[in-house]
Design brief:
single chain, alpha+beta, uncharacterized conserved protein from methanopyrus kandleri fold like, 6-stranded mixed β-sheet, two-stranded antiparallel ribbon, globular
């Protein structure tokens, strides 16, 4: 139950890709889907085909992210939540046009 006046949980776009035994989870803040971020010679297109699976609550996306072998994350809310859950190290975050972007690969031995 959400308390009256409490801020709503952020919604994010998430798409899960299964490729050669890998679970790739792509998540972006909802306001970034379809946006092209450009900074000098770096271009990051937050492509609908890669990120635009489902619009879900951030907590749901983070549960899926925890079981991913590869993560691709874009946006303030998304990257902050992944750092708070220990999925991404803060030093691994890049900023493109001021927007945080992070990738992670889980090595299974």
């Amino acid at each position: 139950m959400v308390e009256e006046g409490a801020p709503a949980e952020p919604m994010v776009y998430m798409k899960i890709h299964e490729v050669r035994g890998e679970k790739i989870v792509a998540i972006c803040d909802s306001n970034l889907l379809g946006v092209k971020l450009v900074e000098r010679n770096i271009v990051l297109h937050v492509n609908e085909r890669f990120y635009g699976g489902q619009l879900v609550p951030l907590s749901h996306a983070m549960r899926e992210a925890a079981s991913a072998t590869i993560l691709n994350l874009v946006g303030e809310e998304t990257v902050k939540a992944a750092i708070e859950r220990g999925l991404i190290h803060p030093a691994a975050v890049l900023r493109v046009a001021g927007v945080p972007h992070a990738q992670a690969v889980k090595i299974l031995l």
